[in-house]
Amino acid sequence: MEGDMKRDTESVQVDALFWRHFLQHSPDVVLVVNSSGVIVSANPQTEKLLGFSSAELVGQTVEFLVPEPLREAHQQLRHQFLQRPEGRRLDQKLDFACRCRDGSQRHVEISLAPVRMGDEVQIITMLRDIAERRQAQQQLQKSEARLKEAQRMARIGSWELDLVSQDLHWSDEVFRLFEVNPASFTPSYTAFLQLVYPDDRQAVNDAYTQSLANRVPYQIEHRMQMPDGRLKIVVEQGKTFYDASGTALRSQGTIQDITHLKEYEKRLDRQITCDPLTELPNRDHFQQQLNQALERAREMGQRLTLMFIDLDNFKDINDVHGHRIGDRLLKDISERLRKCLRDGDIIARLGGDEFAVLIEAPALEDYDRGVAERLLLEGAKPCFIDQIEFFVSCSIGITRYPADGNDADTLLSNADAAMYNAKSEGKNCYCFYASEMNQSLRRRMSIASNLRRAVSNGDFLLHYQPRVELKHGRIVGVEALIRWQDGERGLVPPVEFIPVAEENGLIVPIGEWVLQTACVQTQHWRTQFQRDISVAVNLSARQFRTCDLVSLVQQVLRDTCLHPCALELELTESMLMHDVKRVQLVLAGLRALGISLAVDDFGTGFSSLNYLKSFPLDALKIDRSFVTDIAQGANDEAIVRAIIALAHSLNLRVVAEGVETAEQMRYLLQQGCDEVQGYYFSRPQTVDQISLMLQQQSVLELTQLRA
Ligand code: C2E
Ligand code: MG
Ligand code: MG
Predict the structure, then answer these.
(1) Domains of the chain
(2) pTM exceeds 0.70 for this model
(3) Which of 623, 657, 663 should be mutated for ligand 1, with most atoms under 8 A from CB?
(4) If residue 176 lies in a helix (H) or strand (E), which one and from where to where?
(5) Residue nearest to atom 38 of ligand 1 (CA)
(6) What is the pLDDT of residues 344-399, one digit of tens each?
(7) Which ranges of 458-529 would DSSP assign to H, the alpha helix?
(8) Residue 109 belongs to what H/E stretch?
(9) For ligand 1, what atom is nearest to the CA of residue 463?
């Protein structure tokens, strides 16, 4: 009995020693709390962790360490715990916020161990500092979230295939990328292959199996098909890991959605090669295509045709109606021109209103001629924009490889020269290149560059050609014909610079000058010689289309005091046939001023007799080409006769141009032609010469007429 007692005491002593040691050296805070919740002992760690010394804590209830708002709840929990202490396992751990001496809070993990001390149950409470662990956990969560977000933003998903179990793990982003629901879709390699676009499946499978076999990483770009059928382009990378014995353990990799990158690439490519407005290839790209086509043509010994297309009068539309309408017109026309071509033919926009067509290896000798005719036909169709009817035609220059050039630059510049030739032949036509065109193009270009200076210097003058009334054989008027007095070139005839001035718009100031000068001069002659002579002034298509002609003429008549009946404006058939409603309006306005209107070069255009009837005209001028052949070709005589009859039936005066012989004159007189003009009577003359003629009271003409 005694021995037992001793052993007990010893063991108690050992326990006490152990406890002291344990409490002293435990890295955690250890509190012993009695059944009333009072702290009966606390180890030195309390000071380190919470700032309270053990002396400060002993005697306090544990709620002393609980932050104020939680105290009541804590107390209740403590009571519950004490009622069923054995219901709690020793290793029960709770996350808890403890109050520190400095007022801050500290996250601790609490474990509670009830111990029986005689009759009383005491609770050994251990508090472990978990601030660091919590921080690390939070950090981990944050970086996981960041990784997810990064994967989402980069559209990169990651996957891992366990080669032993064949389990495949996909990151969230892979599910999102493949547009399948993680809740209902179980990833597997077969399931993955099923989502790959069928045409790409073989290649994807090959890439992976070869990478396994050769033990090298792989990368492949392929398409995935979404459940709704849309395609995405992805780039997939992967590699396999092996154990020490060389057995493959797992493959792991990434898959990235690069659809948007590919689209961007395509867009960039389009921007580099395409004209944004018409979506046709641009000049650079066309030149590349032409070079490649030339290489092929050389290799295969084939022919090639190049066309240079320039829209007629497009600049006017741009000037008058603005760029918005101009752009829409270009788009519309480019669309129509494109439709004229066969699949293999290429059309490009070189810039502005210039297009080019490339025809490789035309099967038929005349295939290009057919294309050009179709292009002209389509180009000349009216086009409606905002309910306005527009007429634009094309002029086309054509070169052929190998006949007209061996390289892209030569072919292009020759096609350009041919196009200019088409313009000078009256536009709305095509011309095949001929070597002399280059020379005329060069001359034309030098004219273009000098014309502006000529306008500001006023290097122009007017010659006048008398118009003779056949019935009485007297001069009834003159036609004003412009000349350019150039230092280098001498007297430049209008056929050389008027088309250039039309093209670059200088015809507008030039035309105003002609009108003003001719009216001043005619008024001068009228007062000087007291004769009722009139003046005919040529109008250009551009003036007619773009200027407020009615106001201009009104102003000039007012300024010069010329009687309106002494002014005749000459128009051409092509001016009348475009945009008929507007033409009718302008003509009516001009007519209302009291001036007269004549159609110049009649018979060379395509005027509709019906329109002719509806315009307020006064005269027709038979083109020189018909007059020249009088007394030589029966056909032309018939035409002249018909024009005269037609004009008279419409109550129009008839003027014959280019009368050079007495025979022509006699025939015209016989057919009842009203007036004539031509070298037979007089070439175009200077002001002084005309003055002299008017002074001599046209005796000369009278004698000639009677001869
Ligand atoms: P057009 O209005 O038909 O003028 C007649 C042209 O025929 C003039 O050429 C004249 O010199 C020429 N001619 C007259 N009689 C004969 C003849 O018997 N035989 C031959 N072979 N030719 C004759 P020009 O002066 O060289 O003018 C050429 C064209 O230039 C004019 O044709 C007209 O369309 C245009 N033009 C002349 N002046 C002006 C102008 O001030 N403004 C505009 N817009 N065009 C003008
Ligand atoms: Mg004329
Ligand atoms: Mg004429």
Answers:
(1) 11-129 (3.30.450.20), 148-263 (3.30.450.20), 277-434 (3.30.70.270), 456-613+677-706 (3.20.20.450)
(2) no
(3) 657
(4) helix 172-178
(5) 481
(6) 899 999 999 999 999 998 878 788 999 999 999 999 898 888 888 888 899 999 99
(7) 494-504, 507-529
(8) strand 105-117
(9) 25
